[in-house]
Design brief:
Distance between the termini: 76 Å
Structural class: alpha+beta
Shape: globular
Strand content: 5-15%
Mean pLDDT: 89
InterPro entries: Papain-like_cys_pep_sf
Number of helices: 17
Order of helices and strands: HHHHHHHHHEEEEEHHEEEHEHEHHHH
Protein name: Peptide-N(4)-(N-acetyl-beta-glucosaminyl)asparagine amidase
Helix content: 40-55%
Largest sheet: 5 strands, antiparallel
Length: about 425
C-alpha cells in the first residue's frame, strides 16, 4: 500500500509539472508580447501629465474638451480630491507656460535681427506705386519698405515713443491683409467652423518654403501647411502660408497678413525702432495684439483692442481671460519680460468704457464661458479659461505663474519641467 501511495504522488507531481510547463509555454510569451507592445506605445497608464504633454503637445496647444478628456484618461487623473486638485493645477500651470513659451520662442527669432539685417530685409521689397503713396512717398515704383521707414522716422522726429508707435499702428506695413487671391484679390473666407471650399486645399511645403512655414490658426487650428487656392474669378492659383519671418510677411503684393503676422511684424519693428512692447493674448479666442510702454504704463493703441470687451457682443463666442506677456524687448533686459507679464482682464473691461449694465453682461458672459467644460461657449471652442477656473487660479495666481514661467524660460528649463509651486 505504501508503494502504491508513493507511486501515485510521483505521478501527481509529474502531472502538475507537465501542466505548469504547458501553461508557461502559452502564458509567458503572451504576457511578454503584451508587455512588449505596451512598451512601444507612445504613452501608458502611468504617464505623468507633463510627460504626456511632452509626447503630444497638440493636446495643450489646442485644448478642446476632447483633448482634456484624453489627458485625463491617459495620465490617470486621480479621484482623491487633494490629488485631483494637484492634477488640475498642473494642467493650469502648463496652459499658462505654453502661452509664455509661444511668445518667447517667437522673440528668439524676431529679436535676433541686427539693425543692418533689418534694413536689408526692408530694402528687399519693391513697393507698388499705390502702396508707396500710402506711406507718404511719391506715387511711383522703385521705393522700398526701408524708404517708407525712413520717411516714418523723419515725420516722427521729436515725438515720444508712443506717438511714433501710433504712426506705426496706422502704417500700411503692418496693416491687416486677409488671405486672398494674389492676382485679383478675391478673399478666402476665414470662418470657424469652416465650410468646405473646393477651391482651397492644403499641401506640404516645398523644400524652399519649409523653413518659413509655421503652424497657426486659419479656418481653425492648422499645422505648418501651405494653402493652395484656385481662384474661380480669375483662374489663377495662389500659394500662401502662415509665417513668422518678415522676409515673407512684408510682401506688399496681396500676401495674407493676419493678426498674428501683424503683431510679429510690430515686435520686429519695435526692436529696430527702440520701442518697448508686450504681447496680449486672449484665452479661448483667436486673436493677439500688442501694448506699448508710454513711460509710466502699458497701453494698447489699436481701437479694436481698446474695446476688446465689446467683442463679446459679436455672437461668435466668448473669450475667458486676457494675458499680457513680456519679452526681452519689453524693457532693457530679460528681467523686464517677467515684470511685463500679468493677468489684465479687468483692465480691458475698464478700457471698453461700458455702462454698469454692459459690464455686468460682459462679466456674466465670461463667467459662463469659464464654467463651460465643453468649450462650446468660446470662440475657439477651447477651454483654457475653464481649466484655470477648475484649478481655482485667481488673477494674482495667474500673474505669479506667468512670471515664474518667464524665469524658467530664461534659466533654460523646458515647458513641461514643472517646479513645486
Amino acid at each position: 500500500l505504501m508503494n502504491l501511495w508513493f507511486r501515485f504522488r510521483r505521478r501527481k507531481r509529474r502531472l502538475l509539472c507537465i501542466t505548469w510547463s504547458a501553461v508557461s509555454v502559452i502564458l509567458v510569451p503572451c504576457l511578454w508580447r503584451r508587455e512588449s507592445a505596451a512598451s512601444q506605445l507612445p504613452m501608458t497608464d502611468f504617464t505623468s501629465l507633463p510627460a504626456l504633454i511632452r509626447q503630444k503637445p497638440g493636446l495643450l496647444s489646442v485644448l478642446t474638451a476632447e483633448a482634456r478628456a484624453e489627458l485625463e484618461e491617459a495620465s490617470c487623473r486621480p479621484e482623491a480630491p487633494e490629488q485631483s486638485r494637484a492634477w488640475d493645477q498642473d494642467l493650469a500651470r502648463l496652459v499658462l507656460r505654453s502661452k509664455v513659451w509661444s511668445v518667447r520662442r517667437k522673440w528668439e527669432l524676431l529679436g535676433s535681427y541686427s539693425p543692418e539685417q533689418s534694413e536689408a530685409v526692408l530694402a528687399s521689397f519693391q513697393l507698388p506705386a499705390a502702396v508707396a503713396a500710402q506711406c507718404g512717398l511719391p506715387e511711383h515704383d522703385g521705393f522700398t519698405w526701408l524708404d517708407a521707414v525712413q520717411e516714418l522716422k523723419k515725420a516722427s522726429a521729436g515725438e515720444t515713443p508712443v506717438q511714433l508707435w501710433q504712426r506705426v499702428e496706422n502704417h500700411p506695413m503692418v496693416q491687416y491683409v486677409p488671405a486672398q487671391c494674389q492676382d485679383c484679390g478675391r478673399h478666402i473666407k476665414d470662418t470657424y467652423p469652416a465650410p468646405e471650399d473646393p477651391d482651397l486645399v492644403e499641401e506640404e511645403p516645398t523644400e524652399e518654403e519649409r523653413p518659413f512655414v509655421r503652424s497657426g490658426w486659419f479656418r481653425g487650428p492648422r499645422g505648418p501647411v501651405v494653402f493652395v487656392y484656385r481662384c474661380r474669378d480669375c483662374g489663377q492659383t495662389t500659394r500662401w502660408f502662415r509665417s513668422l519671418h518678415p522676409e515673407v510677411t512684408l510682401n506688399p503684393r496681396r500676401w495674407g497678413r493676419l493678426c498674428g503676422e501683424q503683431e510679429d511684424l510690430k515686435a520686429w519693428l519695435a526692436r529696430y525702432l527702440g520701442v518697448r512692447l508686450r504681447v496680449c493674448c486672449p484665452l479661448d479666442w483667436d486673436h493677439v495684439w500688442t501694448e506699448v510702454w508710454d513711460g509710466t504704463a502699458w497701453k494698447p493703441l489699436d481701437p479694436n483692442c481698446l474695446n476688446f470687451a465689446r467683442r463679446l457682443q459679436e455672437g461668435i463666442g466668448s473669450w475667458t481671460r486676457v494675458l499680457a506677456i513680456g519679452t526681452p524687448g519689453s524693457g532693457k533686459d530679460a528681467a523686464d519680460a517677467g515684470e511685463a507679464s500679468e493677468e489684465v482682464t479687468e483692465a480691458y473691461f475698464a478700457r471698453a468704457g461700458g455702462s454698469p449694465e454692459e459690464l455686468r453682461n460682459w462679466r456674466a458672459t465670461v463667467d459662463a464661458a469659464r464654467a463651460d467644460a465643453s468649450g462650446a461657449s468660446t470662440q475657439s471652442r477651447t477651454l483654457c479659461g475653464h481649466v484655470l477656473q477648475v484649478a481655482r487660479f485667481d488673477d494674482l495666481r495667474i500673474t505669479q505663474e506667468l512670471r515664474s514661467a518667464q524665469a524658467d524660460f530664461d534659466l533654460g528649463r523646458k515647458l513641461c519641467e514643472l517646479r513645486q509651486s
